[in-house]
Structures are given as structure tokens and as C-alpha cells.
Amino acid sequence: MLNHSPKLIDISALFLQLEWGVIWKQRVEQSLIAAEESVEGLRIRALGPQKKKHWSNAPVKKSAVQKTVKWRRP
């Protein structure tokens, strides 16, 4: 068996912890991205289907004649 000095063991343990830290960071980032995508999906679903506006519901522009003529009740 090889005899390792305590410093080498400490350094290898630190590298192992660093490696696990990188892995956990990646997992957290992936879960954050997934959460953002699900929130966006919920937001789109909450808005509901967007209805197309029908041409008959468009505001009618008054002509110059209609603007000048005042209608009175009989």
C-alpha cells in the first residue's frame, strides 16, 4: 500500500469537493432553466388563445361630412 501524506489526502479531498460543487452548480442551473421554461408556459397558457380581431369590429372612421352634420331628434 502506498503511504500518502496527510496534505495529499486533504488536497484530493478538496478536488473531490470542488468537482461535486461543479456538478451541483450545473444541476441547479438546469433546474432553474427548467423552472423558467415552465413559468413561461404557464404564462402563455394563462393568457389563453389569442382571438383574431374580426374586420367588422374595427372602429369606423367618420367622414368629413358626418363630422360636420349634427343630427337632431325629430
TrEMBL record:
| Superkingdom per UniProt | Eukaryota
Q: What is this protein called?
A: Chaperone DnaJ-domain superfamily protein
- Native organism is Klebsormidium nitens (Green alga)
Record lineage: Eukaryota, Viridiplantae, Streptophyta, Klebsormidiophyceae, Klebsormidiales
